[in-house]
Every structure is written in structure tokens, then in C-alpha cells.
Amino acid sequence: MNKQEKDSNFLLLALERIEQDLGRLIHYVIIFFTAIFLASIIYGGMLGDFVETETVGSVMCLSCMGLQQ
Amino acid sequence: MPVLYGVAAVKKRRKKQRIARYRIGQIIATIITLGHAPALWTGNIYQGPLKSACVPILNCWGCPLSLFSCPIGALQHFFNLHLFPFYIAGFFGAVGMLVGRMVCGWLCPFGLFQDLLQKIKTVKLRLPQWMTYIKYAVLIIVAGFLAWFTMEPWFCKVCPAGIIEAGIPLVLIDKTGDIRALVGWLFWTKIGILLFVVVFSILIKRFFCRVFCPIGAIYSVFNRFSLVHLHVEKGKCRQPSCGYCAMICPMDINVYENPNQKECIRCLECVKKCPSVAVSLSFQKPDLALIRAEKNSTLSRGVV
Predict the structure, then answer these.
(1) Interface check B186 vs A, CB under 8 A
(2) Angstrom distance (rounded) from CA B165 to CA B170
(3) What is this model's ipTM?
(4) Exposure string (b/e) for B70-103, b if CB count within 10 Å is 16 or more?
(5) Which residues contact B277 (CB under 8 A, 6 or more apart)?
(6) Which of B53, B68, B166 sits opposite A65 (nearest CB)?
(7) pLDDT for B285 beyond 70
(8) Is the Cβ of B47 closer than 8 Å to some Cβ of chain A?
(9) What is the Cα–Cα distance from B206 to B194, expressed in whole angstroms?
(10) Most buried by CB count within 10 Å: which residue of A43, B85, B128, B267?
């Protein structure tokens, strides 16, 4: 086996490994950011964002519908 | 069994057209989000715990039929109060990371409205690419800066979904005349915006979604990275002689070039109808075929 063949095999193995690692990495990145966003929802809820949203959503904003008071 | 491409495939498929799956999703979502039936005889807005939950789509929370809150309305409300919207930002981020713009295709009632307008047989136009960037300006300037600095929900004031879901029904069902007395220039401006959107939605596929929708602008950023995405097997794809996916796409996307571009709403019509079954829905993973092709070409060149 000459040097070029050895190097080619080495590259092949390295790419196989990168392929597997990249698949895992992308999944981890998506899971990580999704977890961050879910934590943001929970933190917002703790700060009272749900109550605030419910309160403002229960009031009919006439000006938002083009009706002037 | 022979596989038909191009016009032959179109003719064959037109014979057995059924209601699209995403259309069923849109109808169910419309019934659920606008499900406050008592409003039909009382005219009163829903005031309950469900209003604390946002739906991931454009849904006017001033509509008497609406059970849930509008995320862009809530976003502007927090900006009006000069608060960072942790809940809304997290909500948009989580939905975007998981499905990207899929909600625009499968759940949005205003998207359904535009899809139905598109069925009207008339001259059809293609949208210039640069116009799809207007929605980012709408998001940043109208729903962002203006809401923060003027403390008014400016996007709500011009939203065509708001006038069709809330403004017009409230004026029509008004028995006392109190609401009708409030109709002024802003109402007629909104009617004008709605007519503009209606006319262009007849001519151009999903005109509002592609040009003005700030929610679509947010999700489009996540489209490339979202867990759910589309994959085209280049070996199977018969483009450009076929081009059937681009023809049926409700967003006028050349699916075979890049199936995960920012405008894709993942309606999955291309997945269902591709004559050579080259388009598939998959979960995020590296493009193994592409990596293998690159690897083989590197080895064949003898580059180490």
C-alpha cells in the first residue's frame, strides 16, 4: 500500500467519523436551542407574561380594528 | 409501471384531484382558533384562560370568535410596555426550531383565505424576489420600533386579518349602532388595505404571506435549521424537464433547487405529488448523499 492509498483511507475514515459526529451535533444544537426557547417561555410565565397576555387579549381593542373612540 | 413527467403527469393527476392534506389542517385550525361559538349570538369577546395561550399564526384576538391570542399582537403589547417578551420570543423560537414555516402552511386561517382567492381563474403573476424582503422591514419597523417608541400596536392597525376577522364582523353584527358610530378613516384605510391584499392574492400566490407577514418573517429565519425539513434526492429528480414541484408549489418555489428556502411553508404537496418520488420529509441530519459525493470526488482527484 503506497502513501497515497494510506492517506486516502485515512481521509475516508475521517470523513465517515465527521459524518456521524455532524449528525449528532446538529441534533444537539436543535435540542439545545429548543430547550433555551422553552426555558424562555417558562421564565416569561414566571414573570407574569401569561397573565398579561390573557388580560390584554380579553379586552376588545377597538382602535386595532380600525374603530376610533 | 411507467412514471410520467411534465404535462403528462399533470394531466393524469388532475383527473384524481382530492382535497390537500394541508387544506384539512387549515380548516381544522380555523375551526379551533375561531371556535368561540357563543359570540355568534352574544357578540361578546371570549375572556378566559385560553387567551393566555398564543397560536403560532396570525389570529386577531379582537375577533369575538377567537379563543386564543395573536402572537404578533402580544409581541407588540410587550414592546408597548417596554418589556422584553420572553414568552413570545421563546414561543416563536421553539416553533421555528421544530417546524419552521410549516405552521403557515398547515394552520393559518389567513393563508387558507389567500389559497381560496388563488383558486379564482384569472391572469397569474410571479412575485419579484426582492419583494419577499419587505416582510422583514414590516417586522422590524412596524411591529418592532414603532410599537416600542410610539407605544401603539401599529401592525394591528394595518393588519388585514384583523379587519376581516374582527372589524367587519363587529360592525355587521352591531345591533345598537354604537360600534357603527365609531367607523372612521382608520376603518376605511383598513378596508383599502384588505382590498389591496385580496386583489393581489388573486393574482399572486400567497401575496400577504410572502410580502408583508411578520410572523412568516420570523419563522422563515428558522426554515434552514428547523428539525423538520425537506430533502430532494438529486439522483431521482428529473428537473428541469419535469418541474412539477415548482408548478404546484403554493409559494412559487423551485423545490428542486433548494427545498428549504425561507419561503417554503412545508405544505408537503411536492412530497405527495412528485412523479419520481424525489422529494421527502425528513428530520435534521447532514446530507449524507452530498457528503459521500464530495468524498468520492476528493478521492478520485487524489487530493489528500
Answers:
(1) yes
(2) 9
(3) 0.81
(4) bbbbbbbbbbbeeeebbbbbbbbbbbbbbbbbbb
(5) B236
(6) B166
(7) no
(8) yes
(9) 14
(10) B267
